[in-house]
Amino acid sequence: MTVAALVSGGVDSSVVVHLLKEQGVTPDIFYIRIGMEDAEGYIDCPAEEDIEITSYIAKKYGCRFEEVNLHKEYWDNVVSYTIESVRRGLTPNPDVMCNRLIKFGAFDEKRGKDYDRIATGHYAQTSQFTIDNSQFTFLATAKDPIKDQTDFLTQLTYPQIAKAMFPIGHLTKREVRQIAHEAHLPSADRKDSQGICFLGKINYNDFLRRYLGEREGRIVELETGKVLGTHKGYWFHTIGQRKGLFLSGGPWFVVKKDIGENVLYVSQGYTPEAQYGREIDLLGFRYLSADIWGGAECVDVKFKIRHTPEFASGRLTRREDPVYGTIHHLSSDTKIQGIAAGQYATIYDRDAHLVVASGMIV
User: Fold this and answer.
1) Domains within the chain, CATH numbers bracketed
2) How do residues 180-216 score in pLDDT, each as one tens digit?
3) How far apart (Å, rounded) are the C-alpha atoms in residues 74 and 72?
4) What does the longest C-alpha to C-alpha distance in the chain come to?
5) Are 191 and 177 in contact (CB under 8 A)?
6) Catalytic annotation on 197?
7) For a 10 Å CB count at each end of the chain, is N or C smaller?
8) Catalytic residue among 45, 63, 197, 298
């Protein structure tokens, strides 16, 4: 079996190489270069220390090491998607798109096609499941519920899932760091990366301002219609947001956006009713591997609409819409905060083990 290991210099992907070697597999190591476009070309994500550590890991374990430049592919597929989604008033998820279109997409087309498997440091697992005497590979949740990243992998295609390896998915973060210490890996105590990779050290609002500019609009209290202040563009704000409104007498939360009029609607208090909902419509719905429910029109599920350790419980149904065609619908057993159009809902089986389906919230 030939394995391409995507290594970033962090502790998780470093331990992936260690574990593969323990299993008798010597992977080829790849470091993906991605970044944000600027006037002179592209701004790399912080790369020097990452590459230094990754190179060390390759030498330590006798692995071939190669850097792969996917700047253009990242810009065309992920950065542009982010800008356009924000322009439309949606809340994008660049990490979801990066996994499908770059790590398991463009990389596979450019270099990964020569390998049987692609190994990453995601906290996820795969599981075999039989339906009507046919066996399918399913994406499955990790052992560590806090670090589980299956919601970031929710748009992978079936061929991508079947080819993926997640060597640390059966471990907790604490166990991963312990292995790194015992193996004397230089990344053992590195902090986890935060934020959207293509920004590097650039502020997210500065990024949006660069490509979407500013346009003053009103901030209006939803319940009363009272104008409370102004903002510099709806694209700087998302549903459920509290910080950055600069209103007195708060807390205030963004609960609605009027894209055409460039108006933000807000509600006051830590638990305003307008922040919550139970009903979620999904477009672009698809089963990642197969329909485990055999076409049933109503099933009990677990689901997530954002990256969190907790699962929500509810029912998944479908209906026909004259405009959109088939719409799948989630009805939550409890109130859900901050339902934001553009985000992806990840749908699990009732045991919250298998990732069954996903769709974009509308």
Assistant:
1) 3-121+167-199 (3.40.50.620), 214-270 (2.30.30.280), 276-361 (2.40.30.10)
2) 999 999 999 988 865 555 555 567 888 899 899 999 9
3) 5
4) 67
5) no
6) yes
7) N
8) 197
